[in-house]
């Protein structure tokens, strides 16, 4: 309304563009659709849902309550990394069986399938990795706790260490680096890396559609039409 869009097919193209961008970034796209706009926006909603169902890796289409439950479940899930001889490591998922474990630039001993951005999706909750470097992010003791916490929230295995040459990626910063730049640097390093992804069952991004119920009077509701 407030953007003056009167073409329902234009709305569909806008929403599909947002869907594509959120998919590329692995984020959540939430469409909050007022009930009284279903007649006008219904075509766009159907098109977006059909488009979302065509992506591979998949888009997780879920209710907000399911997404909230998953965030809690993911927060309680952790990747454990154990040394298993020279150049060999054992990785296990401690937590959710639905967790998506991604591996890049590394040799593993279990089945996997190509995912996105050079990653492979691991289909087991325990596996071994052959790597000349520790497939984790090493950080110096001076790295701010906030940076370490954010990297762990992004699903990386992070270890505080003074041995930079042993790790696939080493971070030595005294100030707060941009998280996006750090993640890109890790992923583009060309070194073995393991990551716990943010969505379950191998989904790359998520989509949720929700309604809106306003606690307003009839007069307030009528004024909305005057506004636009």
Please outline the helices and strands.
Blueprint: H1 8-25, E1 28-32, H2 38-52, E2 59-61, H3 64-75, E3 78-83, E4 88-94, E5 101-104, E6 107-108, E7 112-114, E8 120-122, E9 126-130, E10 134-139, H4 145-153, E11 158-160, E12 167-171, H5 179-187, E13 193-196, E14 205-210, H6 218-227
Parallel strand pairs: 1-14, 2-14, 10-11, 10-12
Antiparallel strand pairs: 3-4, 4-9, 5-8, 5-13, 6-9, 7-8
Helix pairs in contact: 1-2
Tell me about this structure.
Helix content is 32%, strand content 27%. The protein is of the alpha/beta class. Strands 3-4-9-6 form a four-stranded antiparallel sheet, with no helix packed on it. A four-stranded antiparallel sheet has the order 7-8-5-13, with no helix packed on it. Strands 1-14-2 form a three-stranded parallel sheet, with helices on one face. It is elongated. The mean pLDDT is 90.
Main attributes?
four-stranded antiparallel sheet; single chain; 27% strand; elongated; 228 residues; alpha/beta
Enumerate how many helices there are, as a single number.
Answer: 6
Q: Main β-sheet, in a few words?
A: 4 strands, antiparallel
- Poorly predicted parts: none
Strand order across the biggest sheet? 3-4-9-6
Multimeric state: single chain
Shape: elongated
Number of strands: 14
Q: Could you give the distance between the termini?
A: 6 Å
């Amino acid at each position: 309304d407030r953007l003056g869009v009167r073409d329902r097919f234009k709305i569909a193209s806008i929403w599909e563009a947002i869907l594509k961008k959120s998919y590329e970034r692995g984020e959540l796209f939430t469409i909050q659709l007022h009930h009284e706009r279903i007649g006008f926006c219904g075509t766009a909603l159907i098109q977006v849902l059909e488009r979302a169902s065509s992506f591979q890796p998949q888009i997780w289409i879920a209710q907000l309550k399911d997404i909230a439950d998953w965030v809690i479940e993911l927060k309680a899930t952790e990747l454990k990394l154990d040394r298993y001889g020279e150049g060999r490591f054992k990785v296990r998922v401690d937590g959710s069986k639905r967790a998506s474990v991604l591996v890049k630039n590394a040799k593993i001993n279990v089945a996997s399938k190509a995912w996105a951005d050079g990653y492979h999706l691991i289909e087991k909750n325990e596996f071994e990795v052959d790597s000349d470097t520790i497939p984790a992010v090493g950080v110096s003791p001076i790295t701010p706790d906030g940076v370490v916490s954010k990297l762990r929230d992004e699903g990386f295995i992070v270890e505080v260490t003074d041995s930079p040459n042993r790790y696939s990626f080493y971070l030595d910063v005294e100030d707060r680096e941009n998280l996006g730049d750090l993640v890109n640097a890790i992923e583009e390093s060309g070194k073995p890396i393991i990551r716990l992804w943010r969505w379950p069952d191998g989904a790359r991004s998520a989509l949720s559609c929700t309604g809106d119920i306003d606690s307003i009077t009839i007069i307030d509701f009528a004024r909305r039409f005057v506004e636009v």
